Amino acid sequence: MRFVSASRGMRNVYRGGFSYVTSGVSFFCFSLLCLIGSLLGHPQCLDYGPPFQPPFHLEFCSAYENFGCCDQERDNSIAAKYWDIMDYIDPRGHKLCGTYIKDILCQECSPYAAHLYDAENPRTPLRNLPGLCFDYCSEFHLNCHSAISLLTSDKHIQECCETNRTHFCDLLHLHDEDYCFPNVLKNTALNRNLGSVAEGRKGCLQLCLTEVANGLRNPVLMVHANDHTHRMFIAEQVGVIWVYLPDGSRLEEPFLDIKSIVLATPWIGDERGFLGMAFHPKYKSNGKFYIYYSYMDKNRVEKIRISELKVLASDANKADPRSERNLLELEEPAANHNGGQLLFGVDGYMYLFTGDGGKAGDPFGKFGNAQNKSTLLGKVLRIDVDGKNPDGKPYSIPPDNPFVSDPKARPEVYAYGVRNMWRCAVDRGDPVTKKGRGRIFCGDVGQNRFEEIDIVVKGGNYGWRAKEGFECYDTKLCHNSSLDDILPIFAYGRNVGKSVTGGYVYRGCESPNLNGLYIFGDFMNGRLMALQEDKTNKWKKQDICIDSTRACAFPGMVSSYSKFIISFAEDEAGELYFMSTSYPSAYAPHGSLYKFIDPARRAPPGKCKYKPVPVKTKSKRIPFVPRAKTVLELLNEPSTTKPPKKSSTPTAAIPTVSSKKAKKTPFTKTKASTVKTASGKKRQKIKAEVKPHKLKQEEKVAPISRTTPAPPLPKKRSSHLTRTKKLLPKKGALAKEKLEKRRKEGRLSSSF
């Protein structure tokens, strides 16, 4: 067999050194990387993202055309490298080595490419040849050892390994032999559900998170303006709205600050405050948006106000508080069940979701507020904010509202029998078929037995207070044959959760496996759940797991979150988020925003790219600083395990970790700030900047209920804002004692 030397002018196929350690490696490096190797064997590409389904047929690496890490462009590039190499091999070498060389090059396309190249941990140097099983490697070296100099330009490899098969195959050895090539293709356990949403041991859907924002005071919502700027507007319960830019930074000055008007207290679980916001469908041209908040009038009567405001003409990131135009005000008979959702349907009308007035069991009137169509409490309302009413109202009634001709009903009523719908969302519809477009999903908080998910329909009666979930609550009302109520698509009892937080149907681009899943949660126990609709229009529930270090071992991903789930959100591109806090007080800055990520599959590279319309900013940009530790940071924490006994056998193919004491060898890198992949692309090491926020022991609180009334306002309270410090709950055992006392007295509110 004859190979032409690579030194005869051949272009370098791969660059960058082989970075492996010898038997003299410190135990710290050995134990840490062995741990990472055993934990991080999961589908991942060399760019640290999940694999994908190529949009077009792969001509060369066709074994991975259904699922892997290469698109057509990358496949063509690998094919070009292959033919470059084969130009330097004689005909006999073509027959003996062509398949070996193709297989080795195509491992960049494998769904397990990151594991094969030691790329799962960005802090460790990267192989520039994939991990090969020993038998396969031995056969390759026996038949094609002269091709090694064509596969890598590393002189150390060329000098030491062309004649030393054992040393070469030791360098390519993987600690976990299930993942070496070609064994990884034959492992049915690894490939059975490859590309599908991973299921945990308990049958839950395995998703991951990235932390997007933190330090928020009970973030109650995040909305976008649908103006192609891809800004995110996050509102705090106290009445402050912040602008977050596409680069993750926040503007120092808020979009709107009306905390001097908003009625909010620092009491744990208090529902009152800034609760809703929606941008006009034509916001880009008219600059209008709408807000929903609690306030107290001059007579000290608690009310809900829905208003229209405009953005400043001189600053696209500042609202004009003087432009406020009141659309609707509702007197609240109690401090809880304030509703709070505002949204625009696909019909262009605004939908408002009000609570039943509070207390317990909707005790207002003969049948309660929710069943009384002559009151606006406990309802879904629909109005036309662009029309004017002859009666002088600042809005008009859509002509097809279901009760416009009923003299005993308010014409604004679109649906009724609602207890306290907390968070509703419009389904964008399937990206291709548009199936489901326009459906409105809501989570309706139950009394003391069931939480429910509803789809809002025109004229629908959702049963409260006659029913709670699928069961009777008020037996007398429940047996009324004229009830004709709309049943929820899903309901769950107290063994699952105690206070539903409605979510969204995923219709984004980045995680195609999630398309059509309705994702929601429970405020009280922090449980995340998903509903999947089958062909018979029935909905099946699955829990969502976020606690897997193995599945979430990607850069930037976290596998934990703050417990109390306040709200869900959707950005302009359709990606899903949720907001939660570790301390549910309107004045406690412990709230965070998280984005859902499917670690099993992503969209093909380039498919989800968008170019935000630039917005001129006058306020200072505050860069995002994460507080939560990522999975990779946790895995990289020093091991406390004792070192093993020294062995006479050589250590095989373990990548080095940078260390000041590490001795430089031909196969060790100690200070490389960047390394190159087999394709020649540079990648930077990632450094943790800050430690995660930890809740102080005295701040931890017992779970709160959302089904009992809120505490009355303190006496002689001229301004709840100037007395914030005095109203803050005392910490430690005394705070828990006060919480328990309020719970027994029925004074804790049903927040979120």
TrEMBL record:
Keyword list, A-Z: Disulfide bond, Glycoprotein, Secreted, Signal
Stretch list, region Disordered: 637-752
GO cellular component terms, semicolon-separated: extracellular region
Biased composition (Basic and acidic residues): 686-701, 734-752
Composition bias, Low complexity: 638-651, 667-678
Domain Folate receptor-like: 57-206
Domain Glucose/Sorbosone dehydrogenase: 217-544
Protein localization: Secreted
A family per Pfam: GSDH
Domain of life, source organism: Eukaryota
Stretches with biased composition (Basic residues): 714-729
PANTHER family attached to this UniProt entry: HEDGEHOG-INTERACTING PROTEIN, HHIP-LIKE PROTEIN 2
Family: Belongs to the HHIP family.
Name assigned to this protein: HHIP like 2
